[in-house]
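Task 17 of the worksheet. Students: predict the tertiary structure of the chain below and write it out as structure tokens. Keep your answer in the requested format; marks are given for formatting as well as content.
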Amino acid sequence: MTQEHGKRPYAVIQLRQDDKQAKLYNMVGFQTNLKYAEQKRIFCMIPGLKKAEFIKYGVMHRNTYINSSQLLEATYSVKTQPNLYFAGQITGVEGYVESISSGLVAALNAICNFKGKNKIIFSEYTIIGALAKYISTPNHKFQPMNANFGILPELEGKKIKDKKERYQILANRSLDNLCC
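Model answer:
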């Protein structure tokens, strides 16, 4: 990265290719309430975008989710209607991987339910299980959650200050608790 003016850069824009011909790019993460003309004015101030043609501007979106902690089981089924499942951001998991995780758990349990088999509940020591437990545990201040080490139960008996080491131990513990 060049520093023409001798100052350290303090922002980065991620461009994601949105067509096969590499002629259309999306500026990732630009949710805004700015009017389109103001977006064009500001974006054109960015050196690499000065002559860019903007096909679509950013808009603010609102994530809608149900009160899963009151409504759902750790299988993502509705507590009062066990043959009805929810998955994805509407359950209060945030992010692509988290949504895939909830869909996996819901699908596996829908199949088990259909076949008359026992539910599959992932261990809370795995991120999949910890997310399922988070969304299904009654909580009067329920807010959406991303996958993170903070939702896993703490390590028993020892405090490890080194993050890398602690996260590795948590990851290994998760693998040891992954059911198959």
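Marker's comment: The first strand starts at residue 15 and ends at 17. The chain has a mean pLDDT of 90.
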